[in-house]
Amino acid sequence: MKTERDLRRQLEAIDRRGYPAYKSLRGAYDMGDFTLSIDRVQGDPFAAPSRASVKLSAAQAGIPIDLVDAPHRRVAVEDSLIRRFAREAARVSFSVHGSGKSGLIATSDPGPEVLARSACEVGADGSVILRLEVGFPARGRTVEARGLARMLCELVPACVERALVCDRRARVELGRAVELADDQHAIRDELERRGLVAFVADGSVLPRAGGASSAPMEDARPFASPASLRVELDLPHRGRVAGMGIRRGITLIVGGGYHGKSTLLRALQEGVYDHVAGDGRELVITDAAAVKLRAEDGRPVHAVNVSPFIACLPDGRDTSRFSTDDASGSTSQAASVIEALEAGCRTLLVDEDTSATNFMVRDALMEAVVARESEPITPFVERVRDMWERSGVSCVIVAGSSGAFFTVADTVVQMERYEPRDITDRAREACRAHGVGAACAARPYVLPTSFRPVPDVVRRSCAAPPARRGRKGEAPREERLKVRVRGLDEFAVGAGMADVRAIEQLVDPEQTAALAQLVRVAARRGLLDGSRALADVVAELFDAVRTRGWSVLAEHGEVSCGLALPRPQELFACLNRWRG
């Protein structure tokens, strides 16, 4: 293996040459305390930055083995190392100046969620790989060797020493992250054991500093569970912790505007992920497969059995295999319910504010004016009780204007100035006093049990481009399937795309990037040919990532930072919303 001295000599040899001369640096270098690998070199100072990685053996990293002896612990350690390195890199980034992206040193910059990320991998033996981006410096479009030597031989090693080498201070920080992960893991186990869909610890801070901010609001009222819903959990590190347990079944969250209904629901929908200490919601834990639903006017629907909610359409279309390129609000929400159940979800989260009214409820006056037999929609309020009792599907519903769900709810929580109150008995008494009975009995239904194949539009739009003709005597070269990602808005693979703006439980653009790569890999492996069920395709992809690691998603042959693992439910959602 080449050494640091070799790297410096190579840099001296190409100084002031054209920028493409940097490509001769690709390879691995022994830097003494770690190995530096230059994996991909940018072709221009204004192009996407170069990709590199640093590798530390278990002895060099010094991470105690007991901190990485379980998957949830390893993810917590990786997350902490990424945050540590990102902080150090931010201090020295752009210390070297030049044109374009010259001087950039960066890795992933996580939000409050703890996600498995390609930026860092910690082995079972405690070895570490940290992936980063480096903007190779330039004067105009020529090599600036002295600047890159400073970056790779001084600044990056300093970041490695301060962030990745596990000294006493680092052990304390990593230990605290692992202890929190242990407690979060224990709560998830308790949800299943106690028949809960979620737990919100007393003292949690649910409001955020602003609409676009993930930081906790200063001076916000800490969460305090009503006594009737309080449960106590014995956690391995924090000991006994009390909070509100949301039981399986139907839970209704009500209250006036701006009193915290949607804030609680947002905490629950993001509680499918673990959060870092200091976020305020680190002990807000939700069933990991829970899905937040909403109306999505204009979304495509591909052969979904929406007949439990929509039947007997005036144009005679078959709602047991319903397809459209431009769904209405009610149809889109009906399809989303069925798709979520196909994805393994048994906890639905619904907010009245983002739902289609005619999908959710139908009042008595409308029933009197427009006969039931003239209405093809069975509203959610008439179906939700059966879904729980017959199919074990729980639901948490936020309602602010309609009282229709009082009659079907097992528990009613009123939010008043961000304080939850159990008003279940009062709600039932109010229903009796006003002569409000149970919702009308809906026609019998059967939830779909057969899994659909991958929508044909996915296969067509992600077909591999024709192989490019090679030179004389060479085999044709396989054309790359193009991938394009636009943050948390959309991504495209080949000639198809998925709009992800309404998939509210995607929280990081790196998850969108990973979803794009999962679809690309599925296309390359021939998993989208229509012979496999959608559920089988998703399961095979996630199993490959779980067993083989991030290399499965490496588009250019080497793993780079910039990917974060989504849930299988989000991949289902993207494939179900695919457009050619």
Give the mean pLDDT. 94
Overall strand count:
27
Helix content: 25-40%
The helix tally amounts to 15
Shape type? globular
Approximately how much beta-strand content do the residues carry? 15-25%
Residue ranges: pLDDT <50 for 5 or more in a row? none
**Computed CA radius of gyration, to the nearest angstrom:** 27 Å
Largest sheet: 7 strands, mixed
* Protein structure class: alpha+beta
Instruction: Compute the separation of the termini in Å.
Output: 47 Å
SSE order and pairing:
Layout: E1 2-3, H1 4-14, E2 27-30, E3 35-40, E4 50-56, H2 58-61, H3 71-92, E5 105-106, E6 113-114, E7 120-122, E8 128-134, E9 138-139, E10 142-143, H4 145-163, H5 168-194, E11 196-201, E12 230-235, E13 239-247, E14 250-254, H6 261-270, E15 274-275, E16 284-286, E17 291-293, E18 301-304, E19 322-324, H7 329-342, E20 347-351, H8 357-360, H9 364-369, H10 380-391, E21 394-398, E22 411-416, E23 419-422, H11 424-433, H12 456-461, E24 483-486, E25 490-493, E26 496-499, H13 509-524, H14 534-548, H15 568-576, E27 578-579
Parallel strand pairs: 1-2, 14-21, 14-22, 17-20, 20-21
Antiparallel strand pairs: 2-3, 3-4, 4-8, 5-8, 6-15, 7-8, 9-10, 11-13, 11-16, 12-13, 18-19, 22-23, 24-25, 25-26, 26-27
Helix pairs in contact: 1-4, 3-4, 3-5
Structural account:
It is a single chain. This protein is an alpha+beta fold. The model has no long low-confidence stretch (mean pLDDT 94). Strands 1, 2, 3, 4, 5, 7 and 8 form a 7-stranded mixed sheet that branches. A 6-stranded mixed sheet has the order 17-20-21-14-22-23, with helices on both faces. Helices cover 32% and strands 19% of the residues. The chain is globular and about 90 Å long. The chain is built from 15 helices and 27 strands.
